[in-house]
Design goal:
Strand content: 25-35%
Strand order of the largest sheet: 10-11-13-12-14-15-16-17
Structural class: alpha/beta
Helix content: 25-40%
Number of domains: 3
Shape: globular
Order of helices and strands: EEEEEEEEEEEEHEHEHEHHHHHHEHEH
CATH topology of the largest domain: Rossmann fold
Radius of gyration: 23 Å
Length: about 475
Amino acid sequence: MKKIVTLLTLLITTGLFAQDITGSWHGLLTFPGGKLRITINVKQSENNYVITMDSPDQGATGIPTEKVKFENNALSFTIPAINGDYKGTYENNGFTGTFTQNNYPMQLNLGREEIKAEKPERPQEPAKPYPYYSEEVTFKNEKAGITLAGTLTMPKKEGNFPAVVLISGSGSQNRDEELLGHKPFLVLADHLTRNGIAVLRYDDRGVAASGGEFEGATTDDFATDAAAAFAYLQSLPSINKKKTGLIGHSEGGTIAPIVASKNNEVAFIVLMAGTAIPGDELMMLQNYLLGKANGMPEEELTKLGNINRKVYDVIKEEKDGQVLKTKLQSMFNSELKPLFISKGIPANQVSQYINMQVAELSSPWYTNFIRYNPAPALEKVQCPILALNGDKDLQVAAIANLDAIKRAAEKSGNKKVITKQLAGLNHLFQESSTGSPSEYGNIEQTIAPSALNEISEWIIKQVK
């Protein structure tokens, strides 16, 4: 799931200012499945406003803006890195406005009063001091020329420990894979380290303390980051090089086999809702399951499925980016727009949605994802594999993906592959009623104990 906004750095220029808007402004960005507090800090320098925009709930920095103005009480700027913009009007000592990302508008009003965090109950989140060694580390991805930052936890400062690298799912994730108040990788790392396993988790490139650019990167790029993390972990004197593996969640479960297929020193891999079928097939299933869970009639599911099939075929066939955008725009306007308008959705909203979809579907990450087939990499992996899926996972369908992993194992002759479907768990491995992403933030549990124990007990068996 992609984050809606990270920390934004704004340089706002203007002509003459009738109002003093310097200081801090606070707002709450609300979107399906969550909320984010936003703070804008305004300083004036000669004829310019210098503004930094904070997202206290996420803690990322440095996204620049362009085309910025504050004139006649109207504030506007664009954020090219996330395909976003903000437009607001200054009135009654505050800003009333709209934050838009990928042509999806969200109301964002800003006032002087600070918004207090609504900290959800997360009973599994560990509190310091931890009963183990923890260190902030950095390591280099030489291939990409970037430095990544993360956290290394070990049972003790010195020893010779089995170890794992945690590889996050899609979207710009920090080292804790933080999402909707949950920190799955913090909880997982804590559990594993308490059970004698060292853990390296790291911020995605361009996120939090890691260097590089997230936008424009693909699964293949992220695989080089994971490979660099693995090499760094193996270089440490307290790590047992022969007992070092990978754990990947969602897209991370696609990345782990890529790394393992190219490096025989990977001792084992754990795939948590790892994708094992081609990207277009995965998305066809995901769209159907999510639509069905949201109560969409079968007839409409079929219509949308037919449209999606055509869309993914175009993405797989058309390699020219601009031509792809044109074809997708035309396809959506001719087939999707009439369907939505027939449901009473205003034409301008439909157009905004289509623009958002075209921008997303034609991005480097998405086109690579749709075209990628994980099977060849899986077929090259000879180390032990544990593949887990929740049976309520609506994003990575359990049966289809676990069966694909079994087929890959049979083809490769790898006899050390275990696939398991965990009852009642969703894509985040939470105990869930429906599996719908709308539940993720409302569930107190971060990772079900059954999933944590499956992973740690299996790894301990591999490293004996």
